[in-house]
């Protein structure tokens, strides 16, 4: 079962990519983002895409330009996540058949992203908007809009976010920090998956 959780592997190195990716996959997380401000991110994405691309959604975060999108596509990525809402980046992502998840905070940004063709919205930083803010925004979004909370969302508050209308989450340092062993990443990933499943089962 694919869960609406994106693992954000900021700081990942190419040599870690496959072992960490395997640990995430075994724990039940099959959406993986390597931010482009990581060391050699395109090489890590290429390694992950080659190993798991047939059964996982692999791509990049912190994608800011058309050139970034092109580079990720060339590396085999199929997911583009941005911290901001840039219709040009969204359009380029869709032109390559990739999923586009731009960062938004306001209703204006939400609708700009959707009109540009975004597959879903990354509410970022989630801690600034909070579940109450999402609840207010959710009321005016088109039915079926996918919203992932990123930044300030985790097992301790999954329930509040889901009640407010979050469809899923992007999880960064709670899952992975540079230097962490694949085993530790796997342990953290299993705990997050269990908490998510338990919370979603209650809703």
Describe what is shown at a glance.
This protein has 203 residues and is an alpha/beta fold. It has a single domain, classed as TIM Barrel, CATH 3.20.20.
What does this structure look like?
There is one protein chain. This protein is an alpha/beta fold. The protein has a single domain (5-201), classed as TIM Barrel (Alpha-Beta Barrel), CATH 3.20.20. Helices cover 47% and strands 16% of the residues. The chain contains 8 helices and 9 strands. It is globular and about 45 Å long. The model has no long low-confidence stretch (mean pLDDT 97).
**Spans where pLDDT lies below 50 across 5 or more residues:** none
CATH architecture: Alpha-Beta Barrel
Strand content: 15-25%
- Strand count: 9
Spatial strand sequence of the major β-sheet: 5-4-3-2-1-9-8-7-6
Q: N-to-C terminal Cα separation, in Å? A: 18 Å
Secondary structure blueprint with pairings:
Layout: E1 5-8, H1 14-27, E2 31-35, H2 41-52, E3 57-61, H3 66-75, E4 79-81, H4 87-95, E5 99-101, E6 103-104, H5 107-116, E7 121-123, H6 126-138, E8 147-150, H7 158-164, E9 168-171, H8 182-201
Parallel strand pairs: 1-2, 1-9, 2-3, 3-4, 4-5, 6-7, 7-8, 8-9
Helix pairs in contact: 1-2, 1-8, 3-4, 4-5, 6-7
Give short descriptive properties of this protein.
203 residues; alpha/beta; TIM Barrel; 47% helix; globular
């Amino acid at each position: 079962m694919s869960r609406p959780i994106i693992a954000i592997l900021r700081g990942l190195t190419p040599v870690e990519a496959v072992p960490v990716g395997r640990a995430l996959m075994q724990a039940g997380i099959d959406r993986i983002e390597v931010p482009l401000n990581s060391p050699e991110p395109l090489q890590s994405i290429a390694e992950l895409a080659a190993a798991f691309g047939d059964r996982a959604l692999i791509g990049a975060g912190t994608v800011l330009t058309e050139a970034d999108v092109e580079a990720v596509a060339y590396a085999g990525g199929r997911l583009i996540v941005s911290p901001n809402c840039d219709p040009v980046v969204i359009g380029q992502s869709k032109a390559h058949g990739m999923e586009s998840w731009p960062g938004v905070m306001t209703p204006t940004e939400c609708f700009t992203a959707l009109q540009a063709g975004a597959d879903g919205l990354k509410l970022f930083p989630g801690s600034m908007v909070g579940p109450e803010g999402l609840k207010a925004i959710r009321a005016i979004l088109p039915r079926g809009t996918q919203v992932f909370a990123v930044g300030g969302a985790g097992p301790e508050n999954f329930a509040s976010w889901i009640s407010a209308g979050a469809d899923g989450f992007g999880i960064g340092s709670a899952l992975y920090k540079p230097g962490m062993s694949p085993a530790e990443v796997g342990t953290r990933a299993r705990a997050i998956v269990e908490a998510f499943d338990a919370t979603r089962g209650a809703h």
